[in-house]
## 1
Amino acid sequence: MKASARFHGRWTPFALGFPQLALVALFFYWPTLKGLWWSFHLVCPFGHCSTFVGTGNYVRELKDPAFYASLGTTAIFSSLGVGLSVGIALCLAWMVELHQRSGKVFRYLLIWPYAVAGSVLGVILRVAANPTIGVMGYLNSLWPGFWQPHLIGAQAMAMIVGAFAWTQIPFNFIVLVAALRAIPGDYMAAAAMDGATPWRRFIDIQIPLIRPQLFFVGTMNLIDSITNSFALVDTLTQGGPGGATDILAYKIYRDGFIGLDLSGSSALSMILMLLVLAACAVQFITAERQARREV
Amino acid sequence: MVERHPLLNATTLVLLVLGLVAALGPIYLAVCSASVTSHQILVHGLALIPGDRLWENLGAVLHRADIGRMLLNSCAVSLIVVAGKLALASTSAFASVYFHSRIRHVVFWCTFATLLLPLEVRVVPTYAVASDLLSPLRTIVEWLTGLRLNLSINLLDSYAGLSLPLMASATGTFLFRQFFLTIPDELAEAARMDGAGPWRFFVDILLPLSKANFAALGTIVFLATWKDYMWPLVATSRPEMQTIALGTATFLPTETGQPPEWNLVMAAALLALAPPLVVIGLTQRWFVRGVTGVGK
Amino acid sequence: MTGPAIQVRGLSKRFGSRTVIDRLDIDFAAGQFTVVLGSSGCGKSTLLRAIAGLETVDEGTVSIGGNDMTRVPPQSRGCAMVFQNYALYPHMTVRENIGYALKLQGLARHERMRRIDEAAELLGLAEMLDRKPAQLSGGQRQRVAIGRAIARRQRVLLFDEPLSNLDAKLRHDMRVELRRLHDEIGATTIFVTHDQVEAMTLADQVVLLNQGRVEQADTPATLYHRPRNLFTAGFVGTPPMNLLDATHEGDRLSVEGGGEVRLDRRTANATPVVLGIRPEAVLLHATTGMDATVEAQEDLGSHRVIYARLGKQRLLVTEHGPRTLRPGQTVRVGLPPQAISLFEKASGERIGHATGDVPA
């Protein structure tokens, strides 16, 4: 932007930016610092007293088998959830692009699940996936004991992975449809003239051209799977059975609010933050590299 | 695309219909089960076709618990967050783009950093701040002067407490910043030549041009706030301050107690998802634009 | 009602280590139409924006009507500006666009309307006052941008390549109209362009800029017929002036690869020079002169441009009337001494017109 398009003045920009800065300071920086401080102290349950313990909390967490179990659960949940939501959304976006006649209707309807909050989906699934009265109840009456998510960890995991994907697909779908539609029609026409089938066009032209957006939705999903899957777990499985769905975000909440272990919970938060940071960094670096390659 | 192959057409259509069934299935099941009696669900299992008791069940839910109040809370909190975020995002983006002052970098980078750490990850200390808003002030004053102040404000169980932490994020600032950067420089120059100062330029030129962005950001912020679960869970303890996304979950049967009334649970779920569904249905253009513009 | 004179003194502007404007001194005469001409990157837009106050300067002063305006904010300099992409406010109607500055000045509504109508009348915009910019054609938008400038009754009008987004026909019409407007309102006008046709047709004075310096500031005719240096000679005119290497000795000028021309001017020692002559001044089928070989020709309808060769040097000649030449043919060309410009080979500076003054 040209310097001449900018205004002078010292106080005006300050006044304009101040409300946002104040809010961010109060509800972002202060809590983050507080969490960081807690993570290096042993804090009593309501936070009124503390002793400095250095990295003691981190060491304690990193020696705790429950931490690794939770980390492993998070890894499984995130990778499956992200893969499923990106894969299905991509497939649907491609179908909509191919089927232009009715594509518009589907484009309109397929984004409706965005309206459903994670907790509300959890509540619906508590009924719909209920072993006795739910949809799977019919299978249970054929093979008794087939579907028992409250007892079988893998089934509970499958349930929250599916539910997570369901909540993420509309977002991915919107972004990917927009990306596919942004590809100049000439490219597709040229490929068709070259004799490429729809499948080859998808693999050779469309996917490479929308790679930035694919990567973008993947990262967004990944961050969401780490941070935003709390509602699903809380309403569907509460981390059970036997810790099979005890992802880190849920463990932080449980340790902090139910176990009142502010130090351990804060140390976990910081570790989780590093994971999110790493995800952001990968997204940023890849986007940069891609941008540079295109220049 | 270019060709019209009947087999291709049929395959894509089948896959799309399957996708649609999966997408709308849970909502459909909720409608079905919310429109039958509790007895029918317990005896025959989940309803697969709608019954005729939808209105009665919805009425019963509205009667049974403070669902009306929860809907009102959700509306109030969502609208407060929308208004607050639009105001903060547009002004801070303006400050971060259209000034010579160094402050524009401060505004931008301080806001940018919030992207790195979602509320869910820092929920425990944020709770601590909300329960004792002046603790930063007290700590700083004590650190500087050694004085102990005896002031405190507790934001828990209040609209302010429910909405302010949700506003403290960067997404809106980014949307506006990106948009402002696409506006030709000459427009600002022309306004300067015409004698407009920064405020006039902001009010007369920038805001009218940003209408679509206000609508887009407003829509997705409304939806995100409405759907939020974790913050209301920790920031409220009184039932009358709960939001609907949270309150629906309290309808779930506890381990002990009478036979669960699944039809009412589903009716509550329907009430929780209907308003955002209407928003999406009616404002599709803004909504899609918001999603592609901001991320989430 | 004549606009004020503008003086630029010692003006420099650097972006980082790049010097865009280098100690410029220019006078813009009161009420005159001055065109600042130059190729892209020569600093002409920066100069204009420095005068407008949109760009701060590193050194030097800008004074308007005798008052130092170097540190005065743009809205207080009494200038109005028309931008290359017009910069119309897209959400406002034509009326609101033209009236916005007047509103900010706090002018009463009826006075505002009167001035808007006046400007619209002058520019033929009366029909479209209630339309938005998106509903207008390029030429109409252009007129609104001009209307916005003149409704403020500023005595200085600044134009930043305003015609470059228009098609050829419209550009021609707008040129005529701009000149008429200028004569009507008498403001001091500075018009920046890279198009020499605009410079030649519009200007009272042309300032030719190159790499942040003034190469020549003169009337269009002087610029064309008496270029001060090789840069001006090569820049102005389509097709460009022929520049031939030659040696000046005594009163003879011998063109490399060609023959000799006898001049009025004499030198003691043989000096290498560059001979400049406009294609239309070269005589074809001359009785005395030098032999050139025709290589190709372009027929432009009203005339033809002949590409000929004098030894290793290229010579362009325009031919009017019936076609007489074919490629490969040899033709005798004459270089009339009174049409020749001489430049020092080393410095590129003009040595002086071979004879006399600018042809009438």
Note: The CA atoms of residues 5 and 17 of chain B lie 18 Å apart.
## 2
Amino acid sequence: MERYPDIQYPGNVSGILYEPRAIWSIDQVDTATQPNGRVTFPRNDFKNASKYPIILTKLLLAPVNYLYRETQNGAPIDPTTYHAGGAPAVNFSRILIDAPQRQNYSRQTLFGPSWPGQPTWEPQMRGVDLDGTGVEVQYPSSLWGVTRWDFDHPMIIPKLGTLELQLSPVNTPVADPLNLRPIDFTVIVNEGPPAGSAAPGRFGNFPGNARTHPRSILRYADGFSPLRTSGQGGVGGLQSQQRQIADPFGIATYGVPAAVLSTIQWPSDQQLSAREYDAQNATEAGSTPVEGFGVQIDQIDYDDVTINQFGPNAAAGSPVSPLSLRVASRARTRNGGTGEWWWRPGAPLALVCPTLTPALVYKLPKPITLAPGDTLDVELEVQRPITIGINTIAQSYNVGISFTGYAAIEG
Amino acid sequence: MTEHYKEHFHRNIDYLVALASKNVREGIIEEPRAFYDTFTLQADQVETVSHPDVFINGEQFPIVLTQLSAAIRPTFATQPPNPTLDERFIQRMGLRLSFHDQYYQSRDFVAVPLWLNKVVAAADLVTQGSSAWTFERPFVLSARDSLRVEVALESAPAANNTRRVTVSAMGTGMLSKRPYFLSSSLELDSVVPRIMPTQGFRNDGAEPIAITDMAIHCGGESQAPVGQGDIRQLRLNVRQIGNGTQAEWLQGPTVPVPLAQMPAVLAGYTSGRAIVHRFPGKGLLWEPGEGITIDAVALDPTVVGFELAVSLSGYISVV
């Protein structure tokens, strides 16, 4: 009987199985209610609750749950008194990371941009000039809408093993259901060439394979459902570790037509399911190295209607925020591997995709190893209120942070 | 692309020069190659298949393909508003490679953006107008050799305007190991194909150069207030003058409509605006006469009639 796949794959240590892992949290700082501008993320959010060591290789930082990518001046916020929007949330926030009883990762809090970012963005998409006049309409969230994670180590899935990756619905700021536009998503899981294959792929033997969930509708969350989410999977007091943090600028959520509406957290049709995974490439024999996954969210129409509905609330030229910062996710292996969730369910997609993401990605120069039961202390600090002339500049930010890496599983 | 592969494909200049020198000693010529085609997407969910003579090795030596790129080829001539100018619509197109009943990446069409497994974003200031291509293997530009670079615009600039096109090749001297930067520019005012001045690419030195990179830039119209440029406006083809195979590096369709130059946006294998997919492992090996077909599909009715451009790139080994 196969105890573990007898596979030698480049970069993997023999006898060790690797599974992707991420630990994450989100929090809100509002200096109107927290004058010292400081919050400590819950320790449990960063705890290694499994029985395998987790090696963290990258840090991700992102503004979570914003309607606009850079600036946002929605009521009731007075734009003269707030640094409002996605970009300031990273640029005005400082982070301190500490592995308890071992080391501080830095001696003092560091601004988000102080972390040298990895190149993980799509090419810039400032605007669209459909008339060819040189006048661009400045709103698109991104060029391709892709988030992607190529794993540090290929994950070997045994012959009958499968995996699943699920997405949550997303809230809409659109008041009139007649103005709703469809959002679509597609999922891909990439598998590499067979282990030990040193030669280029030949006919009938392409160098790899993919399993996909085809283009499907990403549903809007029912604004009146008790299980509605704020985009990152929080469900209020029902699960204390998944705190709900609303959009900081009072964007309401609305009930939407049943055809595109969901009242549940993880709709069954918003996933690459284990059955779907298994059904594809059914003739594949033996173990396969899974090298990564990607999710594409087509929000072209959503971008268009959002700018039309809320354009006056956005400063000129501020693009719509990518929905990967508001769609929650979860994933795990089935019938093989550990069967554990790769991250605490509910992480915004962008926070668990360090290869291509709208988040800021920082590669840790020295990986952090969390033994079972270990945790990290992470503190977020923003600028305290300051008064310049007659204006007191307050701050209100939603920031998400995550660490990505892998679990090393022996035997 | 895992960390392992990134390390595997490191670009150490000493290694590259040693590789090129070894090839010279052993009489091996390695030269960049790309195959390209364009697909006008038919009715929603109806697949369009590449011409069988395009993605095929028509030369006498093996070709290794390591990357795929894809981008929308806009139709510049239509009256505004012109949705094909909106690059985002590539999100609604699907793609797969097929060889009889073997498929890659999947039997199901995969949305083109999900082929992306290589980060290619260039700096904001130049991203609209540039493509950069780091060759998989360096090629040797011998003393007195040059490059024949043919360029053409997709649409003519407005009256009394030109677009400045610049193509550059970078490399290292195989004896001195000093850097070489070869470049040529041309002002284009029509869609007529032009040959760039060859003296800019000529190796006037006394040593062969291992050329490792190529950069392409298509500027904005000379009197336009926005100087960003637009790489989607440009097509090009390249071949070596002197040594080498003498064949065009970039090979495209000849029927039903010949397209003698590749859309330059597809050459952004290292940085640019095309979606770039790096094949796992060591890529695809095509012996002479071997090839595949590429299928494209509109995943949504809004992109019916759009033109999708696709290329496969790598190198030929003449042994």
Note: The CA atoms of residues 208 and 284 of chain A lie 11 Å apart.
## 3
Amino acid sequence: MLQERQIMRIHYITGLAALFVVAVHILMRLIVPYHTSLQFSNVIANYHNFSYAVLLESILVLLAIHGFNGLRVILLELRQKSSWENGVTIFTIVAMIAIIAFGTRTIIVANGLGVG
Amino acid sequence: MAGIIEKIPMLRAGSKKDKGSKTSGSVTLRVYRSNSANGNSYRYDTFDVPIQRWTTVLDALLYAKAYEDNSIAIRYSCRMASCGSCGMKINGRPRLACYTNVAELESPVITCQPLTNFSLIRDLVTDFSEFFRHHKSIKPFIINQNADLMTSEEVSEFIQSPRDVDEYLQFSYCIKCGLCYSACPTVATDVRFLGPQALAQAYRYYADTRDNGSREDMKNIDDKHGIWRCHFAGSCSNVCPKGVDPALGIQLLRRHLTSFSKHDKKIAEMKHHGQVT
């Protein structure tokens, strides 16, 4: 089991890293006209670009880890019972894994790597 | 001071009318009255208290207690902001009653309430048991297994440079008055949170070069309800009457715990028989 300091270290690192990759993502959307950027064919083309797919995957993983740990921290403050704390921890870990798995599947399918 | 006096009508009127007299006016003192032994009911009692330029809120309360209602419960001792006994909410803000001049409040009505985040005993007196339990839990003393102060015939010397002292000096001014604990929004929601006072004291001893750092592994600081739950609201530092910055201490200790910075903590240097070991 990770110590709280290790969890928070991951929290800070993922937060900073997410800030960077989301900034890159937004910049990439801004350098092309808005209607062109979000046209279906362009979106699919983006997914077929391996570097861009890696960027999206990293955004997904970083935000999921950072966000669900943030949610865990908020929920821990609501009640101070060990059953509640254990439940919150399990819920956030499961939800985080589920979101990452579903998002990764979407990226893989859109990328055309053969799944689905 | 003259500027403050000018802002308060009754003081200004009093100072003109009673020129040469010691009495400068009066304020209305609203005192929270409740007895936890008799349930949760409470009321506010109002007292007109004569004030002078140097009258503190504690002076006003003691006047009301002496001349109007001797059943008012107040905890106080030194009257000089050293003991930290007379903490209470004055006009909605945690302050020391002995360190708060009535004139500086710039209000004709002064409301005194017990500190929040503490359980109430009676009137303005709150229970500090939990607060001191948190304080004790961080072992607020120097821990150094290498010290031979108790065993050796020749006592060792701990060497500290002025720079070493500066690392923790401001945090050692804490008088444990509980104002920071009362102002902390995290303490209000998380009863197991150690609070700014205990965490700042943890940093105070952590940063002390005479301490060998064993406190670093203490589980209650690096816990779900430990140092990581601080929101950095900063209200603790805002209300401290001694100029301590608990929020800074918490952030510095966090930085060391996450190892984002190398702590330059040195094992206490000891001169033993004239040799540094």
Note: Chain A touches chain B through twelve residues (CB under 8 Å).
## 4
Amino acid sequence: MLEDVFREEWGRVLASLVGFLGDFDKAEDAAQEAFAIAAERWPAAGAPDNPGGWLVTTARNRAIDRFRRERTLADKLHLLPVREATMDDFDETSIKDERLELIFTCCHPALRLDGQVALTLRALGGLETADIARAFLVSEETMKRRLTRAKAKIKATAIPFAVPDERLLAGRLDAVLAVLYLIYNEGYRGRVDLGAEAIRLGRVLVTLMPNQPEAQGLLALMMIHHARRRARFAGDDLVLLEDQDRSLWDTEAIKAGRSVLENAVAIGGAGAYVLQAAIASLQTREHVDWPQVADTYRRLAELTGSPVVELNHAAALAQVGDPDAALDTVERLELDGYLYYHSTRGELLRRLGRGPEARAAYRRALRLATSTPERRFLTRRLEQV
Amino acid sequence: MQYALMIYAEPAYGDALPEAEREKVRAEFHALLSDERVVEAARLQPAETATSVRVVGGQTLMTDGPFADTKEVLGGFAVIEAANLDDAVELASRIPVARYGGAIEIRPVVRL
């Protein structure tokens, strides 16, 4: 219970403290202190009406106390962006939400990508370092170093704690979205459902930037995918979308994802995430409109120039009922090292009744498969040709 | 905050450019030097003029050539006064060589 409140409030409290203290480590110490006091007091005295405000105020006061104790306050005061008077009559209601500044700092492209990911999960998501380490299959020491290194670079190079101005915003927002999507794609490992975590962070981003269609597109994409997670495996076996047991889908979550997508489109969204969300949404309809799926993949391919998207476009064309055209498209792609290139090719050849070639393609895919579920899936396919 | 911008490029990358473009690049670079954020800047003589010095066992040893033998070499540097890293990146990105295959390494300066 208390843990939920803490997770909910952590990002906001930390953001406010980083803004106030201008230092990640000091902010984290102060936040931790405030949360510890809350853990002690709230169970007996009850949580305050505005837990976030209480935590920020308490943490700020503790940080100021610490400065005073260190008694070099006179020297250090110039580091603080507020005057002493305003600290003393600090008003809880005036705490502004600085999570957006924090997101852009954590996802600054001057940081290593693994550092961006770790810091976003730690600072905004409030995940424990040990849990992040487990989720990324590295030791806690390694994860600690990753976080320390990112924080040290922010400090040493003066990476700004700010929302980038208009000129930089588009590129920097792309970087933020890439980090969230990367977290999403890590899926479920250890104690942490990173998919759910990415969705939570995506919701925060969309709330703070309601006029950015790509942020909404990514959120919708993640929500719709996540809603199908229980149908994606049968035991250890991978289940293709068309074979999934739809009763396992979370229809409420799909509906919610669609409504986010509608908002994105309503404000002019037509970027890569919006298109991917549109495809995910179409594919979860009771009767899939394959011509529209194919057309959306075509638009996505034009936008991204990605051969992998072309491959998906071809697979959709095959669903429309034109495996010849699909195979033509596939054969033009240079994706020899890509498992799904060979498995898609195998599937198309199978449908065209070209058994021996289909088997060869599946065997090629099998050689590229790295996970057990993939290997089992391809072996089954190979037996069916 | 002060940052050093170290400008790396393939030697004589400009020679491959048409004369008019080379002229434009030169003008652009000089205009950049008058930006008020620039504290000091210099172009370096080619890497062939470099001498690397080490002191081993009290002996001063010299070798001909730059410290690291790479395709891109340090061709110049600037020290700038910028508000933060984004500000420094903005200035660095306008150094012409950055779009001709070179790179600008940015490092905060520690004044001694």
Note: Chain A is about 70% helix and 0% strand.
